[in-house]
Amino acid sequence: MYMQVVSLFLIAAMAVYGLAPLIKRLSQYCSLDAGLLIYLAFSLSALIPPLEDMPRGSSAILVFFLKKIFASSLNPQAAGLLIGGGVILVAGLLMKRRPLPWKVKFGLQLLGAGIVVGFGLKITFITNPFGGYIYLDHSVWPVTLAWLILIVNAVSLIDRLDGLAVAIASILALTLFVISILQGESVAITSIYLSVSLAGAGLAFLRYNFYPATLSLGETGAMTLGLLLGGLTIIGVSKATALLILIIPWFILGIPVALVATPILYAYLKGGRFESLSRRGLVGGMTTAQTVFLISFLCLALSVLSTAVILNNTLISGILLLSAGLTGWLPLRPFFYKVKRTLPVKTNMPSARVSILGIEIDHVTQHSALMKVKEFILSRSPHIVFTPNSLMILKAQTDHKLKQAMDKAHLLLPDGIGLLWAAEFYGTPLSRRVTGIDHLKDICRLSSLEGYTISLLGSTPEVVKEAALNLSKDYPGLKVVSSHHGYFGRKDEERIIAEIKQSSPDVLFVGLGPGRQEKWIAEHLELLGVPVCMGVGGSFDVIAGRLKRAPGWMMKHGLEWLYRLYCQPWRIKRILSLPRFVLAVFIDKIKLNDLSVVSGE
Q1: I want to staple 596 with a disulfide (CB 3.0 to 4.6 A). Which of 284, 288, 551, 601 is the partner?
Q2: 467: number of Cβ within 10 Å
Q3: Which pLDDT band, with edges at 50, 70 and 90, does 345 fall under?
Q4: Does pTM surpass 0.90?
Q5: Amino acid 238: pLDDT
């Protein structure tokens, strides 16, 4: 068996090395996840029979493999993993969509996990923490599906830093292999062969996936890797160990994210002023390589510790525990020394624009932003003004059309507390928020004094008319030359654009909702020919008086956020997205640290 184990490990590793150049070349011409490398290496080694059963002669070997694949002689559990992972990879390749919508991703996960379960791989019992086992009867299938999907998402989520997901998967596969060996006859030989195959493929793939990565797993590749790991944990009866190891990366990344997100969330909900936070982040001051090494060594120490707990042999357990302590402490020494010194991150001087997750936000005050708008109007050429918040910046990471629209903007105002924190964390702080509603009112006040004309587009027919009427009352002399509701389709766009051009406004306020309005303005900017086109979100509802402010006693006690959430329950989506935004900024800062090291700063 030991010769077979070594052979499988080497076959998986050599398959990755041999196929990597081909995958690199093919990925230039088609949407191909490099996770296919690990899958092919795992599949090849899983099909290899015991050496003593291998027939002699090339033709006999070929016939043997064909029978093994098509005559259902392959272990059903291994077959389920191979087919389920293959379906995910093929479906991702055929759709050729980057990134995949969450509904499609969940559908692929459910399909792959369903195939694995359909081939008989299931969780029949779980360990009772108070002793014994809890046997599952009617809940076998849903529990197994839930477990597989949990592991798939855990691996997908940690595939944010080059090499992290593959390193953790390799450590977990090696741990499952060692545990399977130590448990002896109580564990199927399939667990030993599959885990060592995955470990070999993963460790070989690290050469291409570690920073700077020349090959990445991709979304479907990460899901496939997670499915293979999830299946191995069931075969090897090592679910608790796998869960602990996969939690480590998010525990390390989650602590600083939670510490940062909490005060930002409080300030956002309360609607108050955001207080400056320290930029000395634990993870933010490390490079990708340092972060991946730190997390990987901690996971390795935990895996050694878990193996020691499973054993009953006191001597071996003691040796493994000592190894776990050394494995965890040695890489942590320089890390703790670095944190102890608490070196501040270099703060750059305020620049014209601050980059946040690849989106360039203008460093302006409320007055200077208004002066820029005046320059745009006097130039008579079309300009775009957007007021993004953290949720919109996060959405632009996956919505390429929105990202292109924001890149096209001439003025991007920081309308969000999260953006102030992110800019400070990057070392390029912004002076203050410039909210969309305040900027809209400033422009209307300026227009009433200078004789500029405005048009409104968006919301319902009643709301946009009330907003136009209220603006005319609030700013005497303001000329609202046209208004149109936002409930129109593609066939009406040509007529609406013609009406706007005929009215020839100086400023067009577009309130079609975040995301849609930005893409619409960017697409029709030249046709509109308006000097200033600004996205205003739901500002028309506020101006029309449809959205009321909280009662005085609630505002006095800082509960205005609760009233907003009551009036607009959909705001919970913004609240829940904030930790994701903070995490994305942390990871982006780590990658920027890599660039600083390379450039010698």
Answers
A1: 601
A2: 27
A3: very low
A4: no
A5: 64
